[in-house]
Amino acid sequence: MQVHSLVNVEIILPYLRAWKKEGHIRYAGITHYEDLYLPPLLSWVERGNLDFVQVHYSIFNRKAEEQLLPAAAERGVAVLINMPFEKARLFKVVEGRELPSFASEIGATTWAAFFLKWVISHPHVTCALPFDIKSRPRRRKHRGAAGAAARSRNARTNGELYGEHSRLQPDR
Predict the structure, then answer these.
(1) Neighbours of 96 (CB within 10 A)
(2) Calculated CA dihedral for residues 95, 100, 104, 109, nearest 10 degrees
(3) Which residues are within 8 A (CB) of 67 and not within 5 positions of it... i.e. 6 or more apart?
(4) Strand locations in the chain, DSSP E?
(5) Are residues 110 and 159 in the same domain?
(6) How confident is the model at residue 113 (pLDDT cuts 50, 70, 90)?
(7) Which range marks the domain in which residue 74 is found?
(8) pTM score of the predicted model
(9) Same structural domain for residues 78 and 93?
(10) In what order do the strands lie in the sheet with 78-82?
């Protein structure tokens, strides 16, 4: 069970912890989807006694990897990723563009798979939550959870992946 968007977290989280201790729930965590709330999420993770944190993270929004992801890993807190497709905006950015040449090496045959593989291959990410209303028709194309990780140990592929990040910036 989670405290969504940190709403009344000081009041609700103690209840969740008590329910967990009593065996009513298995996991207790906190969530937010805005970068403005990364510091409070980090603070709660650092205080301890959380099973998971849910945060916004994608190939375009990497702010969570600066402090939150390492802190969660250090404390054994699972990390769930929301909005890995930026509410389907990433598909607009890559519309009409070919996948990078190394995408086939990681089993990505669609941009959705490429973006998902990028997110879930971070060593501190536990899982991604790709569904949103705008990406509903793409559900079958999300197959990023299958096959090789996007961030392989191969330095060339890793470098190409991060290079692709900079080439995919929206036209301004």
Answers:
(1) 4
(2) -10
(3) 38, 42
(4) 2-3, 29-31, 52-56, 78-82, 127-129
(5) yes
(6) very high
(7) 1-82
(8) 0.80
(9) no
(10) 2-3, 29-31, 52-56, 78-82, 127-129
CA distance 166 to 162: 7
Say whether both 72 and 104 belong to one domain: no
Query: Is residue 169 predicted with pLDDT exceeding 70?
Result: no
What DSSP string describes 24-60? S-S--EEE--SGGGHHHHHHHHHH---SEEEEE--SS
Average pLDDT estimate for 53-62: 97
Q: Are 105 and 33 found together in one domain?
A: no
Give buried/exposed letters for 128-153 (b at 16+ CB in 10 A, else e).
Answer: bebeeeebeebeeebbbeeeebbbbe
Question: Model confidence over 64-104: pLDDT tens digits?
Answer: 999 999 999 999 999 999 999 999 999 999 999 999 999 99
* Residue 130 domain-assigned (yes or no): no
Number of domains in the chain: 2
